[in-house]
Fold:
Amino acid sequence: MKNAHLTIQHIENACKRLEGIAKDTPLQLSRRLSEVYQATIYLKREDLQEVRSYKIRGAYNLINSLSEKEKEKGVVAASAGNHAQGVAYSAAHLKIKATIFMPQITPLQKIDRVKHFGKNYVTIKLAGLTFDETSVAALAYCKEQGATYVHPFDDYRVIAGQGTVGKEIYDKLGTNIEYVICPIGGGGLISGVGTYLSEKIKNIHIVGVEPQGAPSMYESLKKKVLVTLENINTFVDGAAVKRVGEKTFAITQKLVETVILVPEGKVCTTMIELYQNEGIVTEPAGALSLSALDEIKNDIKGKTVVCVLSGGNNDILRYPEIMEKSLVYLGLKHYFLIQFAQKPGQLKNFLNHVLGPTDDIVRFEYMKKSSKETGPALIGIELSKKEDLKPLLEKMDKFEIRYTRLTTNDLLYGHII
Structure:
């Protein structure tokens, strides 16, 4: 089916290949979210796969579909994350040699995970500083070796494998589903899930979600042509793609009702809420579908909704940044550059007369570099509720505090925060 169009039969065939490899993951009812949105909301728990993401489905389906001659020549992939782990696991299980290219800046933890799943069947090569550079190196090597390239999303065999997520949803809920919400990176997951469920369920709403900083599918659908983004925010790394696939774009154009863009801070807030309320550890891309619920809350009232929680590979070292982005998004943390006059009592005056009783200084960095009469201080203030910002700003104006409020859109913010 390398050059064939995707059909529901391809997905059902993929399901048979994946028996004993990919878990039939739980469809977990979220009582908390169902109550909040007055709907019946299920979480499709792909974070519970052995490689902690749905990527095992597409990778294994493609590799296991190869002829014996193709298997002998091995496979090649480019990835710094979940796709690499899926390819490594599949190659080791099928006893096929795989070469996986990863960016030179890939954290050691991710490299070790790929080595763990790939055992002696996988060779890792570090090339390039970005995924795009790494992919170019992988494709060149693949051509040189005569191997098969395991694309992370733009291959019908991969899309069919990801589509088994949709089949499992249908097998459990039947036609009693009105909305399915999927994250979008390259588009493989939503293309496969959308293909299966759109044929099985009349009038189902397929909704895609992308991070605000990487809207490659959103922009492509808007302009009705494949768009390559010049710059993207890579924080939601599992969905940070400059260009979606040709095949996935064509399928999404036909089947997906809308694509919602979600701010990175909202994704972080969702991750924290999931951990605190359900004990679920998710990666940023895995939280995308749930992060979009606020945008369609009026449409989903009284409806049955499935949110695909696509993965749970999150490095614990990222949590301070996740907390930071969440607090800023919620309006609870703010940064200011304040010009204090160079005379005694200025900071004391600020603390006694400007700060509210529950306002907390969480960062203070004096940035004076010369003997000028004034010197800037970087001050981070955490509020107990976002409504406290207005009285704080009013008191700063009243006491003639010279300040510049830094926002996430400021170039300086990214440099010093």
Notes: The first strand starts at residue 27 and ends at 29. The chain is about 40% helix and 20% strand.
